[in-house]
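Quick note —
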Amino acid sequence: MKAEIIAIGTEILLGDIVNTNAQYLAKELAALGIDVYHQSVIGDNEERIMEGISKAFKNSEIVITTGGLGPTQDDITKEVGAKLFNKELVLHEESLDWLKKYLKTDDEYVVEANKKQAYIPKDSIVLKNNYGTAPGIIINENNRILIILPGPPKEMKKIFEEYVRDYLKDITGNIIKSKTIRMFGIGESVMAKKVDHIIKNAKNPTVAPYAKESDVILRITAKAHSEEECNKLIRPVYEEIKSILGEYIYGEDEDSLEKVVANMLCAKQMSIASAESCTGGLIAASLVSYPGISEVFMEGVVTYSNEAKISRLGVKEETLNKYGAVSKETAEEMAVGIAKTAKTDIGVSTTGIAGPSGGSEEKPVGLVYIGLYIKGKTVVKKFNFNGDREQVRRRATLNALNMIRKELLNL
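Predicted structure written out below.
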């Protein structure tokens, strides 16, 4: 089945409100095996709303609207829906009773001002709103399903979760389940080439690549009658991908590189400290976002100046004079220095040129050295990152975390 999502409200068109409802609904519909090919935003105008819903029904069996269910004259979504299906609006006594209870009043003026919200298209399904004054509505006639939901995200989500999800599940008889494989240290194009035969030949489940700044993703998506059937379809494809790209895979689904590394450190009880220059504390911030990291994360210092590198970490002055602050040698001494002074199993360091100025032909903007001391072993890697200052710092941080992850796997 196909569905279209329509957000109604001039405030969304003007940018006063971010349309998070569409994102939520698209994910929920995908999980139910319902395809969403179009989304739109329409202002509070009867003619345009009518046109938008009518056009949506030419391409989809289901149309879900959010917004336009308030008590004011420009809230007209329900009225347009009734007109589209040739239904009169009738007072729904249960909704009126709830409205009075929710507003905690019997004041005639207040009730009359909000009474509009208790009028429902005749013979439609009423979805009680336990978190607001406007109920949701389902009209299902002539192979067309119009689902009208309130605009406030909290109200919309609760009505969907309490009523709409099960209603649609009964209609479709299918569910969709996805497994996300998360990778780091490989580009999207290289990754796609390695599993090109899987991507091209996959029907059910399908396999699709995505790239974000923080990682590269392969999403395996299966459609079946149950979650168990989906899992059976996904498993062999996942195992084949893992056999090809295993060295780059750090996690699945909602995992993050920060979370995975922190979890590994805690599980192995490996203490760590960080000495950062160009990243300015981002490595430490990434690790301490994980609950329980205090068991292993001992200290993080930002040694931006040469003097700090010498006095705090024990970097040799002759090293800085001969090789410079941005060098393999300095990164190595920083990593060793923080581990020794903090008395930790692991020391990680960064030194580089984040830009936008300060680079040279020999040492361009984006040059970063990452040092790692772990149980007596020292590893230093050189990187040349593209992007602005914040991108260079973020990419250096992620690569430092990935270096820690890979070394922990070898222990």
